[in-house]
Amino acid sequence: MSLQHALIDILADGQFHSGNELGERLNVSRSAVWKALQHLRDFDVDIHAVHGRGYRLAEPLELLDSERIHSALNQQTQAQLQSLDILFDVDSTNAWLLKAPQRHAVVCLAERQHAGRGRRGRDWLAPFATNLTLSLGWRFELDITALSSFSLICGVAVVRALEGFGVSGLGLKWPNDIMCQNKKLGGILIEMRGESGGPCELVIGVGLNMRVSADQAATITQPWIDLQHCDSISRNRLAAALIDELVQACMACSEGKLDAYLTQWRQLNIHQQLPVTLHLMDGREVSGHFADIDESGALLLSENGQQQRFTCGEVSLRSG
Predict the structure, then answer these.
(1) CATH number at residue 34
(2) What pTM, to 2 d.p., does this model score?
């Protein structure tokens, strides 16, 4: 464990700790403590220093704890899971798992993600110890084409986990945005490796806004929401619930049991039967009504009695 990690473990309680106390507990000099504090400030951790009292965080933090997460998993998940790693700081949990030698039934979470990726090359940053960023690696003995609807399945899995904590107003936006009160709460990024005929490996990345700071909010260019409007939700318990549901979704997909997921996705679709504009990767826009999804997860867009099928793009509600 790094000095910064050990220091934040002590400060996470939100109480004052003097420089002398911190140095003694960590067996380092006060100068080393000060340098470590500066490093944490570089992570945008809000640390208050008061003469005669010491240092404390602006508010307590719940740090991720592998033992707490593992103990909260259901027995089936515990039996399946090969490893659960928690990183202090990482470029991207997805990228970390893609480079790992073992990529089946493995989970990676991070306190801070500084180079995460969303859809279409967008950044998905995770400030230190406030939001939830995790990735699950899974190997399927399936042709990669059999997994075309999997991002939708994972969206349902995330909603199921959140509903277990009483979060209301949840919905899904095709193909992989998690919505709450029609604002973006989180997203899913799935990366695949495999060849035609199978098998294939997937890394499923999930990012959820748990507490967005004012500075972070200023950089967001779309309507968003975090989980601060809910009663306090434990990051560790939510992480365990997400892992449980994602593992269950992977097992259901392996067994071809996706009908219930696709039915629930349709019920959660915030654009079902509404007039929408689909923004395509090449810059074109196509308008129509969101008629449905097919069994592969493709969007079926209807306009003037004609129906078109799309496998990628970004949907927005059509104005006017």
Answers:
(1) 1.10.10.10
(2) 0.93
